[in-house]
Fold this protein.
Amino acid sequence: MSQDPLRDAHGRLISDLRVSVTDRCNFRCQYCMPAEGMPWLDRADVLSFEEIKRLVRLFAALGVTDVRLTGGEPLVRRDFPRLVGMLAAVEGLEDLSLTTNGYLLERDADELVAAGIGRVNVSIDSLQRDRFFQITRRDSLAQVLRGLEALARHPEVHPIKVNAVAMRGFSEEEAIPFADFARSTAFQVRFIEFMPLDADREWASDAVLSGEELRSIVDAVHPLEERPREPHATARVYRFRDGRGEIGFVNPVSDPFCGDCNRIRLTAEGRLRTCLFSHHETDLRDPLRAGASDGELELVVREAVWRKELKHRVNEPGFTPPPRSMSAIGG
Ligand code: SAM
Ligand code: SF4
């Protein structure tokens, strides 16, 4: 296999792969899934651990250094820590991370750490029980916080981030509690703007609470100072001027970072997506199961990556969301 790094037609090098390990989830967050009735993929259609490992090895040989495991909820996939162990051994990977809703972290934290997970993001939209329930449709805040604490007992997992989706009419009230949380714990808090990837298709531009609005709410109480932006970083990160920690804002809608995007995604059934908002995907599972060689798969991957979208068009007239919603893509 050639060792030329993966690049797209706009000159961007691709080094970050998000792998969805399942489309299933034990939560039903309003901005992601419908309250009921999301059909799951048949198990036979979902990539096996061995298939995921084969593809991750291929991507690593093409220059992917960072892999984030996501879903759906990755921890509902049976034996998930075993997959982490398999991927931690892949040559060339520098960073193996996880995004989870945290519900099963109390059960799995030790095993995940032993298997080699490096960094973890836990999604929490409110630190108040009733408001957490309102968004996730599950009364599980205490369980999630216990999971976070179980993970925090492992200093080798660093950083542990807490990600909150920011929605107008809801998250304004969350700004200060999360800022206080960031100031009083070692967790790194990030607000993420609501994107048009909800299954209910209720997203509207005026439902987006921008990172800048949240930043100014926080700044009025706890003055902030922007930190230099790291390459490919999606978050604008600010430190509290009094030195007590930092807080970040990921602003894909109000301040897109497409120009610097180095990401691609693999869905649970083995489709390659070159943008969260892609309308086109490239199937890797069928060629894989039909016995394609690494060289043949490499060609398919290179061609798909070459066509990676220049930018998303969320703010443009005529934008249509992709057919898949967030849990089926792998956020
Ligand atoms: N179930 C895991 C979790 O919630 O962390 C992993 C998958 S979830 C799809 C990944 C991330 O996408 C979560 O942080 C979630 O809050 C975020 N997300 C889901 N739908 C979103 C939307 N419409 N806009 C912005 N972020 C969204
Ligand atoms: Fe499940 Fe994560 Fe989507 Fe919430 S955001 S419904 S936890 S996949």
Observations:
- Residues 16-329 form a domain with the TIM Barrel fold (CATH 3.20.20.70).
- The CA atoms of residues 213 and 243 lie 22 Å apart.
- The radius of gyration is 19 Å.
- The mean pLDDT is 96.
